[in-house]
Amino acid sequence: MVAAIVCLVLVAMELRPAIVSTGPLLPSIIREFGLSHTQAALLTAIPTLLMGLLAAPVPWLTRRYGRDRVMFAALALLTVSSLVRALAGSVAMLFATTVGIGAGIAIAGVLIAGFVKAGFPRQVAIFMSVYATALALGSTLSAAATGTIAAYTGGWRWASGVWALPGVFALLAWLFVAKRSPAPAGAGAATQRHGMPLRNRTAWLIALFFACNNFLFYSCISWLAPMYVEAGWTPAHAGLLLATFTLAFMVANPVFGFLSRDEDRRLPLALGAATALAGMLAIALAPTVSPFVAVAVLAFGTGGSFTLSMTLPLDNTRGPEEAGAWNAFVMLVSYTVAATGPLAMGQLRDASGDFASSLWLLVAVIGIMVATTPFLQPHHRKRGVAAVA
């Protein structure tokens, strides 16, 4: 179990730095390549979109080639693409390597849910909170250090490429665990196949909630630091604000994971969404008044909502195959929608000349999250209540 947890942490820590590190570096990348804000947003939007679009074929890839091989290939693609992007000499190479980064993150992210459901079916909330915490830890380290590395190395390339290093440790950890774990279903194994829950109302509601949460997260990851750089902050100072966001996000993951012990997680989900709304309103109304406090409140609510919404597909399923199908569906819908977040903020910034309208867009998105929470009871519980009635 210890080896599996360590592997889970190392893999998770590799799945966000390639995205998060672009935030503090965006002003430098925009200047070097002559990008508009909308074009620059693609550096975050492309991986987020692929996290949705590539979720659908992952169950087939797992059955065809086996979970361990597919995971290793995804981590290798992510690591190599992160390194090569730092060497990009053209806009085409910059975006091509970003596609590789997004593909690696997308495939590995889908496989994690099945890994947890198969190995720890009675502890999914705790293990998904560990996973979410490790995701946030990788985000926090990259957010806090990227601006400083760029300042000391004189540019964005070293500060971007250094985040390929955690991928090496993730690859080694997965190889270690794969050799010592029972062979998972895949590669011709006779397993029950579950299609995506396209006709399940609860699945669509989960996808909507998760989409709003990720819309918020990736919008903040992309534009929070550049917004304050435009206001006169240094990239290192703005990076610390982004690190505050990811740190508070990380702290919320285990807190909400341990608070939510029942499969019906509507109350803590509502608490997380309402907390995020309070922080976002503070930033929209007065972005220069105690921004570190407001960002921390926003991130704490976002992080709590994130870790619990990742658990929702597992609460509604009975086995790893079905969990994988639900997780693939939720990721397909939610990340496809979430990819529009950074783009929408970039377009609004180009059109209006500032970020005010973008901030109010995020307020509206969190409002949808709050409105969705009463309907997120597990669907099998709804059937049980109806049967009793």
From TrEMBL:
<feature type="transmembrane region" description="Helical">
    <location>
        <begin position="292"/>
        <end position="312"/>
    </location>
</feature>
<feature type="transmembrane region" description="Helical">
    <location>
        <begin position="324"/>
        <end position="345"/>
    </location>
</feature>
<protein>
    <submittedName>
        <fullName>MFS transporter</fullName>
    </submittedName>
</protein>
<keyword id="KW-1133">Transmembrane helix</keyword>
<feature type="transmembrane region" description="Helical">
    <location>
        <begin position="357"/>
        <end position="376"/>
    </location>
</feature>
<feature type="transmembrane region" description="Helical">
    <location>
        <begin position="203"/>
        <end position="225"/>
    </location>
</feature>
<feature type="transmembrane region" description="Helical">
    <location>
        <begin position="267"/>
        <end position="286"/>
    </location>
</feature>
<dbReference type="InterPro" id="IPR011701">
    <property type="entry name" value="MFS"/>
</dbReference>
<feature type="transmembrane region" description="Helical">
    <location>
        <begin position="158"/>
        <end position="177"/>
    </location>
</feature>
<feature type="transmembrane region" description="Helical">
    <location>
        <begin position="38"/>
        <end position="58"/>
    </location>
</feature>
<dbReference type="Pfam" id="PF07690">
    <property type="entry name" value="MFS_1"/>
</dbReference>
<feature type="domain" description="Major facilitator superfamily (MFS) profile">
    <location>
        <begin position="2"/>
        <end position="381"/>
    </location>
</feature>
<keyword id="KW-0472">Membrane</keyword>
<feature type="transmembrane region" description="Helical">
    <location>
        <begin position="70"/>
        <end position="88"/>
    </location>
</feature>
<keyword id="KW-0812">Transmembrane</keyword>
<dbReference type="InterPro" id="IPR052524">
    <property type="entry name" value="MFS_Cyanate_Porter"/>
</dbReference>
<feature type="transmembrane region" description="Helical">
    <location>
        <begin position="94"/>
        <end position="116"/>
    </location>
</feature>
<dbReference type="InterPro" id="IPR020846">
    <property type="entry name" value="MFS_dom"/>
</dbReference>
<feature type="transmembrane region" description="Helical">
    <location>
        <begin position="128"/>
        <end position="152"/>
    </location>
</feature>
<dbReference type="InterPro" id="IPR036259">
    <property type="entry name" value="MFS_trans_sf"/>
</dbReference>
<dbReference type="GO" id="GO:0022857">
    <property type="term" value="F:transmembrane transporter activity"/>
</dbReference>
<feature type="transmembrane region" description="Helical">
    <location>
        <begin position="237"/>
        <end position="260"/>
    </location>
</feature>
